[in-house]
């Protein structure tokens, strides 16, 4: 975590986590200080470094410790009753927050982002210029880049355990179509577009439509226009279609924000009206 002293304290608390409880005031204060860093965007659960996703295990451990050390407390949000260990986020400087949007303390939303009626869980990060559209979910520790559009009903999965596990990462300029799901630490690279209803997990097989080549599992390639598909596999009981992700085309640099270009590619391949 950004504060080395806090990070070392989290390491020490983690080693004796089975002995901790809500009555441990000093431990709770240290964990709250660590989660406050995540809430303010001064620390992140994970970030992209070159070709890798680097996970801050201390940040994830702090979140897990919070569930042990924070007592259950009553509250309200927009007239709704809340009874939880983790309070709701209360500060959104520079963010457009539409009625019905909920974000838990410990998540961070950069100025310039838009939260429609949606849910952002603890440890989640939403970059500037991004929109979390109606009924979309940003799961625990999921990392959403800048200028990303999570369309209506999109499910971005969360991850807390084990601490070293990589969360879902949606990189800058990506577009996730309505009702799509990206879970289990899958990754959508910069400028990639997922058509409506696509499912991407860590084990999802990814193929190029033009060449038939198989790409890295669980990853939507940079600037790729992708749709959910299936691939036939033979079993003793018969032939069955197993889900996969199909890359229809790669957009040229500079097309990252062109949703009309995306629509044309999908329509050309018969997957858009």
Mean pLDDT: 92
Query: Based on CA inertia axes, which overall geometry fits?
Result: globular
- Assembly context of the chains: single chain
Helix content: 10-25%
Most strands sheet: 10 strands, mixed
End-to-end distance: 47 Å
Given helix and strand content, the structural type is alpha/beta
**Lateral strand order in the biggest sheet:** 5-8-11-14-17-20-25-26-22-23
Specify the number of helices: 4
**Taking Cα atoms only, what radius of gyration do you get, to the nearest Å?**
20 Å
- As residue ranges, the low-confidence spans are none
Could you spell the SSE succession in H and E letters?
HHEEHEEEEEEEEEEEEEEEEEEEEEEEEH
């Amino acid at each position: 975590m950004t504060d080395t002293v806090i990070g070392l304290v989290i390491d020490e608390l983690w080693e004796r986590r089975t002995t901790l409880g809500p009555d441990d005031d000093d431990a709770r204060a240290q964990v709250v200080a660590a989660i406050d860093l995540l809430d303010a965007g001064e620390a992140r659960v994970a970030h992209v470094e070159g070709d890798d996703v680097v996970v801050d295990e201390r940040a994830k451990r702090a979140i897990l410790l919070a569930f042990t050390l924070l007592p259950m407390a009553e509250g309200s949000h927009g007239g709704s009753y809340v009874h939880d260990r983790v309070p709701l986020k209360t500060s959104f400087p520079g963010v457009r927050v539409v009625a019905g949007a909920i974000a838990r303390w410990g998540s961070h939303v950069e100025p310039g982002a838009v939260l429609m009626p949606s849910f952002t869980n603890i440890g989640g990060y939403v970059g500037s210029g991004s929109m979390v559209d109606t009924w979309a979910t940003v799961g625990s520790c999921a990392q959403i880049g800048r200028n990303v559009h999570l369309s209506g009903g999109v499910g971005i999965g969360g991850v807390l355990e084990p601490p070293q596990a990589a969360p879902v990462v949606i990189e800058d300029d990506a577009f996730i179509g309505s009702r799509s799901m990206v879970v289990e630490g899958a990754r959508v690279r910069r400028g990639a577009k997922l058509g409506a209803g696509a499912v991407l997990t860590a084990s999802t097989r990814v193929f190029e439509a033009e060449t038939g080549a198989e790409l890295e599992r669980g990853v939507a390639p940079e600037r790729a226009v992708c749709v959910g598909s299936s691939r036939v596999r033979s079993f003793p009981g018969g032939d069955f279609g197993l889900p996969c992700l199909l890359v229809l085309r790669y957009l040229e640099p500079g097309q990252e924000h062109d949703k009309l270009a995306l629509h044309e590619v999908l329509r050309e391949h018969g997957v858009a009206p």
